[in-house]
Structures are given as C-alpha cells and as structure tokens.
Amino acid sequence: PGDLNHFQALTTALSATVGIGNIAGVATAIYYGGPGALFWMWITAFFGSALKYAECTLAVEYRDFDSKGMTAGGPMYTIERGLGVKWRWLAVIFACFAVICSFATGNAIQSFTLSDQIYSEVTQVVGFQHWLTVKHQLTDWYSVSIQQIINGLLIAGIAGLVIIGGIKRIGSVTSYLAPFMAAIYFTAAMLIVLANITEIPASFGKIFTMAFNPPAAVGGVAGGTLLVIMNTMLWGVKRGLYSNEAGQGSAPIAHSTAKTEFPVREGVVALLEPFIDTIIICTLTGLTIIVTGSWFHTEFYTTRIDPNFTGELLNGSLLTSMAFKNGLAWLFPFGDKIITLGVLLFAISTVISWSFYGDRATEYLFGDSAIPVYRSFYILFVFIGAIASLEAIWSFGDAALGF
Known about the structure:
This protein has 403 residues and is mainly α. The protein contains 16 helices and four strands.
C-alpha cells in the first residue's frame, strides 16, 4: 500500500530539501561565517543521516490512511500512534509548527530568492531606474518594485496550478524536476571545480582551518576567539539544517507515502538525502564560491581579513551567481544564468513539495475540509515572499525552523 513508489517518495523529499538552501543558504553561511561554516554543515549532515533514517522509518511504521485511502503519515502520527494518545498534545504542537514552517521555510524563502534573482536579471537589462525595477519606498524600512509584484503573481500562479492537483501530481512533477535540475547544477559546479583543481587543497585547508580558528575581526573582537568560532559554527549548523532538514520532521511526511512493506527500507532510501543534499551539492556550491575568489565579496572577509576590500558585497544566490559566472568564464560568459535556472527549478519544486507537508499537518489538525483554506493561504505566502526583504524573510524562516 501507499501513494508513491520509492523513487517518487525520494524525489519529492529531495525536491523539498535540495533547493534554495544549496544555492543561497551555503552562500549566506559563507557570507556571515566564512569558509569554515561549510565544515559545520558537513557535521549536521553526518549526524543528520541517522536522524533522517530513524524519522522516516518510524513515519512508515506508524502511518495511517485517510477516508479516501491516501496515506497520512509524519511525526504527528508517529507521536500519537507510537507514544500513545496521551502524547497527542505534542503531535498537535508539531503539526501547528509544521504549518507555520511550510509558510516560511518551504515557501516564502523560496519565492523571495527566485524573485530576487529575476529582479537582478531584469536590472542587468534595463537598469535600476526603469519603471519596472525602480523601488518605491512605502515605509522607513520597506520598499518594493513593480517587477517584484509581477514576479510574485507569476510564481504564485505556477505553484497554485500544481498544488491544487494533490500528491499524485506533486510526485509526478518532482520525479522529473529533481533529477533534471540536480544534474545541470552538479555538472556546472564540477566543471568549475575541475577547472580550478589546483586550488582545491588550499580551499579544503581554509575550510578546516577557519572552522576551528577563524580570523577575529580586524582590531580585535569582544569575547575573543570562542565567540568567532561559535559564530562560524552557528551559521554552518543553521544553514546545514535548513538545507538537509534532518530531524526536522518534514521529510518523513513525504516518505510515509512510499509503497513498501518494510518501513526500514524507506528509512535507508531517506539516508541518501543528507548525503546528496549537503555532502555533495552544498560542498560543490561552497567550493565554487571559494576557488573562484567570490568569497572575498562577503561581510566575513571584509570584517575579518581585509577591511580595505572595495568590491561589492553579495549575499544569497547573487554570491553563487557571481561564482558561477567567474568560474565558467573560460567556457562561456553566461555561467550566472545556470544559477537563475537552478533557482527557478529548485524554488518551484521546493514550494510544491512543502505544500504537501502543510497539507498533511492541516488535515491532521482540522480534517479534509480545511485543506482548500490552507492552500489559499499557502499561495498567498508565495506572493508575500516574493515582495519581502532578505533579512526579514530569512529571520522568519529560521524562527519557524527552530519551532
């Protein structure tokens, strides 16, 4: 019994995990925490594999089937059916936070990054003063352009078309999207790494050295070295967990739909996720940023290593775009367009997969009738994310993830 085969369950969960965390998340970790943050991302993946294996095995073991014969699984069912009814309060709390997290982590951050990337591409063509791209200051802390509003409407429309079709349509879309986009991204990143093969040993040296001994701020820093190491560790762990979602309870909802007699079999399939997501894809992103010298354009580099650096500071997907543009310049001048395509496919697929997670949590809390209401709000948050600011949207995402 089940709704999806092993491969579709893996690609649906991978579509939710392989995404903006791999493109923008790694860049943000290096921007604030330096190359050493990548080491702490590996640590979250190593221990996260065990968590992912356990949570996905349990999700299949304790899954239920709803009135339509569709699978209903995830931590809320694991808690209630595995620990007993007296723990239902904990299952309810998890489901509530899963709904909130679906609006932030799997939704608003994705649409923000995609909108930001499209905005950046449009400004390269028409400039910042065009009627489409000029930012209108609405309050002291918020401005928005017509281009961002158009982006929001388009992304929300595309996501809505797939989401309304339910898990069968989600599974069929993600089983094509996930391998296709991962292959393009992997190939481009490998070309950059191979072209700079002589820089690789030094890059790994930076990652290990700065994980345990990052340079303090120029002119000293209050609290000394420990504070600086903690900052690097914090950014690595935050972005590592954001990227591979191990132990977070989201992926088991997708894996619980797998057609399998043996729960442990699906747990082993799920083990692959932190490895594919963090050990392979995040590492490749990090290495491209380091070997191409793009990491000089970060707050970490300018405050800790060279305060006289005059280059533009770039964060999120724009930093990764620069790395790909510089790294593939020997082959063709449009390397940054691969990131735009990657962000487009990664973001859309993550938004689609995460809607299913929120769906299941909503059904657990309120029953079938609440799902259309949830989906309407979900699509609204796709639009909100597209017109929000970077700091606000990532803070919201980190808070939701923490819950």
